[in-house]
Amino acid sequence: MQMPAALPLSALENATEFQPRHIGISPSDEAHMLSVIGEASRTALIDSIVPRSIARAKPMDIPAAITEAAALAELKALASKNKILKSFIGQGYYGTLTPGVILRNVLENPAWYTAYTPYQAEISQGRMEALVNFQTMVCDLTGMPIANASMLDEATAAAEAMTLAKRSVKSKSNTFVVAGDAHPQTIEVVQTRAKPLGIEVKIANSKEEWDALLAGDLFAVLIQYPASSGWIADWKADVEAIHAKQGAAIVATDLLALTLLTPPGEWNADIVIGSTQRFGMPMGAGGPHAGFMACRDEYKRSLPGRLVGVSVDVHGKPAYRLALQTREQHIRREKATSNICTAQVLPAVIASMYAVYHGPEGLKRIAHRVARFTAILSRGLAKLGYTAKHHDTAFDTLSLHTKGETDAIIARAVAKGANLRKAWNEYICISLDETTTRADVELVWSIFAGEGKALPTIEAMDEGAPSLIPEFAVRKSAFLTHPVFNTHHSETSMLRYLRGLSDKDLALDRSMIPLGSCTMKLNATSEMIPITWPEFANMHPFAPKDQLAGYYELDEQLRAWLCQATGYAGVSLQPNAGSQGEYAGLLAIKGWHESRGEAHRNVCLIPSSAHGTNPASAQMVGMQVVVTACDANGNVDMGDLKAKCEQHSANLACIMITYPSTHGVFETQVKELCELVHQHGGRVYVDGANMNALVGVAAPGEFGGDVSHLNLHKTFCIPHGGGGPGVGPVCVVEDLVPFLPGHQTAGIESGVGAVSAAPLGNAAVLPISWMYIRMMGPDGLKHATEAAILSANYISARLKDHYPTLYSSANGHVAHECILDLRNLKDTSGVMAEDVAKRLIDYGFHAPTLSFPVPNTLMVEPTESETLFEIDRFIDAMIAIRDEIREVEAGKLPREDNPLKNAPHTAEQVTADDWKHAYARELAAYPVAALRKSKYWSPVGRVDNVYGDRNLFCSCVPMDAYDNK
Q1: Residue whose C-alpha is closest to residue 708's, from 716, 700, 719
Q2: How many other C-beta atoms can be found within 10 angstroms of the C-beta atom of residue 663?
Q3: Which end of the chain is more exposed for a tag (fewer CB within 10 A), N or C?
């Protein structure tokens, strides 16, 4: 009997198993979609869309795909090269214990990490409540009246505070004074940010220098409290002196310390910043961690970042929304003074929930334990002969003058499995934290005692040891008094609170999020698993470099792969948001011009269609923005560009373009555009926001770009996390490599300073993109790009008779996204794009990008991860909504009382006894039959934005506000 032919082992090993798991379109789906579009094959479609003049000549030199299990094993081997030592380094990064209920139900929960920025308020009520908790927590602990919904890290928050002060105070000085005992990475980032703005940073490293600088010219001062060395000083008189000069007092602080210390708001600080890392977020070699900023009330309309405010919905019930959200890059654009894409929402949610779970008493207990261990440690070290201290006050950090012993003690510590911090050459800093145990204190004593000395005992040193917190600094005011911080202390209660909040929201785990320009694609579980591995999570960013070998190797590999994807020569992963990547890229261009003696080149050309982040970033590096026109098809107007290049030729620094364009089209003249700018001495910045349409098919570094930033939280699968974390690598051509961000604090030299607090930026989430590229391989990455383009063109083709696509190429095709034109509906029905966006909520969908880049349009980006079933479900919803609009146009539904104008409909509304609308409840609740099986109910009706801005309220809502409604 003949045996059947067996499949070869290579086919059974299935190295490319992940590709069809990531890409939602099957071969049969693809054939159907191509038939609707009118193309014979996927290759023919791509050839007809991507200009042949920019198509890649050779494939990416990236390792071939491997299975999920193999990729995890390979990454585990890489992680094992990191050495986890007990960290006593401090310097803004501390060990912390993430409560299991928060770890599992927030950090590892796709309901939280796959959510988008809460621009659509009604479907974001859960995450915005968590952010209001965060804002309230920060206000309470700092003693300030208003706080934003997070910053990128402590150092960039300090830099933002500097510019906030500059535009807010009456002083006309350009001098910014920094107390030398601030964290060194904070000083470095402030210096980077100050230089292009013409701000002079002066550092006080002694009492004499401090007094002299305070007596001189200044517009603001940065104080660290407690200081980086642990010193707790009384700054009240200094703040009065700063105010006498019409300047601002900025305080960098520690929220855990503020549970015990007098908050800066009580001694009249103007701006308070810091990091919430030690509230449950692992060190992760530097990030992601939520920075925070709080300020006096009169600064609130200049406050950078996002602010969640409380408004009311159409039924008069409290509802959260982003307050003042469009004030900067979306409206002011080239007049913008900061960039609102600066948030770490997921880490902010974790920090807020850490406070909710522990409550004020729990936080104080943790802080008192840290302070007690510090006092015990100090007394024991004194017994061992180490009495020469930098200061006699401390919360969690001691600084010992160790003179000639410093290096020997640090080496002894490493040999015993611990890291201490060397400071000012002859000092050692020791920081304790929530994770500190009795054994840890004894370990430190053993390090300092050396061999043969008897060690003190915890019990003996505890008895009678005085507190190191001075009486003037002891906090007497209450904090976190709102019920939300005093209710959910059992795990059962906390679990249900978290589940209740996530149930209010629409994230990628429920349905397609068709946001154009935002690339909401699969964040695969295998990609997410490594971020909580101890080898990645428990690393201090300033540990000795040999202990971070796995991280640096991962960084090197990922940068090499991104160079292959983009065609550039060098990459830095330090920028911890796309906005920061833009900023770093423009700094590189600026630094290059300066190195050639052409510092006068400061004109940045930006097409009128560009992302609003572009002009905001140009402002931040001190460039003059000149807007260039677009033609009727949405392309850069080459005639106007040529005229602007000639007009500004002597001072032209660069042009910033987005490719494919913000209008979702591959412009055919992009190579000519690059050549034109180069002829006039400028460099070409290609915004990488739309890189999901390019990977594997075209490379900016090959078709004329000099600089690009990427969004790893878009194209390379790091989750958006409700608006952060992000990573915004900056990629450059060969001659700009010397101008990538440096980091002197970490020993990395460059022509440009640090742009983030940590040398590797948001290092803890880099394994996500590493896993994605490793499992996809070059062929899978290219396939993903082509599938994204296929899906966008399928949507455009199927909806063309209902919502015409505004911009397309000559053959009617689009890139990876399409802009649906709803502008004529205003005249025919009174319906606006916002009404369609809100009605989509009733159908269970997050809206596409609303009114950007063209007012009263919807920009749709399906990505490669969505299945044909889900894409068709979205299309069917859009067609059903168009039919509802036709009912209005025909007079069958009133213009002011129809399902679109009243959307979204809440369950309470449609089940109420009183129903006075001109359409049936059934149409409101179940416009398509499938919703009867699975229905998302908006927790609130349409939110009143105007009310929220006129009545700005940004902290926890009193419980009776709900009880009375």
Answers
A1: 700
A2: 27
A3: N
Closest CA to 250 of 120, 163, 136, 328: 163
Q: Are 399 and 390 in contact (CB under 8 A)?
A: yes
- Answer left, alpha or beta for residue 99, where phi above 0 means left and psi between -120 and 50 means alpha: beta
- Reduced 3-state DSSP string for 689-710: HHHHHCCCCECHHHHCCCEEEC
Model confidence pLDDT, tens digit, residues 25-73: 999 999 999 999 999 999 999 999 999 999 998 999 999 999 999 999 9
| CA pair distance 391, 372, nearest whole angstrom | 17
Determine the Cα angle at 661 with ends 657 and 664, to 5°. 165
| Element at 9 (helix H, strand E) | helix 9-13
- Mean pLDDT lowest among 326-340, 639-653, 695-709: 326-340
- Residue pair 927/880 in contact (Cβ under 8 Å)? The answer is yes
Q: Grade residue 331 by pLDDT with cuts at 50, 70 and 90.
A: very low
Are 730 and 545 contacting, i.e. CB atoms less than 8 angstroms apart?
no
Task: Note whether 192 and 584 are within 8 A (CB).
Answer: no
pLDDT digits (tens, 9 = 90+) for 294-319: 999 999 988 988 999 999 999 999 99
How far apart CA 78 and CA 101 sit, in angstroms, is 29
Quick one: tokens of 246? 């019409």
Structure tokens at 944: 């009143």
- Going by C-alpha positions, the residue among 40, 15, 113 that lies closest to residue 765 is 113
Q: At what angle do helices 125-142 and 491-503 cross, to 10 degrees?
A: 130
- Read off the pTM: 0.97
* Whole-number Cα distances in Å, 769 to 54, 74, 96, 106, 327: 26, 14, 25, 20, 32
362 in Cβ contact with 354 (< 8 Å): no
